[in-house]
Amino acid sequence: MAETADAPSAVPPASAPDDVLRVEHMAKRFGPVTALRDVNLHLRKGEVLGLLGDNGAGKSTLIKIISGFQRQDSGQMFLRGKPYEPKSVDDARAKGVDTVYQDLALIDELSVFHNLFLRRERVLRPLPLLNNREMKREARRALDEIGIHIPRIDVAVARLSGGQRQAIAVARTVNSAADILLLDEPLAAMGAKEGAQILDLVARLKAEGRVSIIMILHNYVQVFQACDRVSMIQDGAIALDKPTSETSVEELTEIVVNEYRRARQAAAQPPA
User: Which letter, b or e, does each residue of 14-31 get, where b requires 16 or more Cβ atoms within 10 Å of its Cβ?
Assistant: First the structure.
């Protein structure tokens, strides 16, 4: 088994020419709570990176900072080699970074094709009317291009399965011309069949080389199915950063078990 990292390292990984995103010495506090202490992370072009960590480890906070939803207290980011400081979610999207959160941000009452063009609706000029025909045509093309089979795109998304809804949310980000996708627990609360559909979609996007992806995951088996590399956050920093080919479920589990042991020992210490 590969050597297990005992403590988070504050040393950022060496810069590589194919890095599309770099995070260096990222820190974020919420009052007395330290969410991120010293995070160093990088994402290569065309790579799928699995982001792991216990509940409250800071995974979602990191994603929100990269996506422009929150600002860090310190540290810096680089996008395609240039300083990256998104002013908002819309600014991040304009720079090619888009996020699919757990709630998917879909409107149940709207159709598939209307959700795909949410906030980017096509209109007829000079009349302020929706160009539904064009949006339907473009929606079908976008779904077909990444292998998503939705028999009818004029039905409300509330009638679709969880896997189909997740796929539509991913398709919307791809269709927005984003080349970096941040997926916040895309397989949460899904059955095996629906989860497999999303993993297949990620595999197709990876094979096409169109996007680079960071996925927050909890299931280690899914990490090895979908990801090229894995980064694990502990104590507000990256405790492990390895290609999946160089680690194992056993190593990842051992790191988490050691963290629980340290936490129990600290809790058992009498107060000073």
Answer: eeeeebbbbbbbbbbeee
Pick from 251, 215, 168: nearest CA to 60: 215
pLDDT digits (tens, 9 = 90+) for 207-231: 888 799 999 988 888 899 999 999 9
Three-state DSSP string of 200-223: HHHHHHHHHCCCEEEEECCCHHHH
Instruction: Take residue 207 and report the two structure tokens written for it.
Output: 């094979």
Q: What is the DSSP letter of 15?
A: P
CA distance 138 to 103: 24
Question: CA-CA-CA-CA torsion for 105, 111, 113, 114, nearest 10 degrees?
Answer: -60
Q: 189-214: buried (b, 16+ CB within 10 Å) or exposed (e) per residue? A: ebeeebbebbbbbbeebbeeebbbbb
Enumerate domains of the chain plus CATH numbers. Answer: 19-264 (3.40.50.300)
pLDDT tens per residue across span 1-46? 444 444 444 455 666 778 999 999 999 999 999 999 999 999 999 9
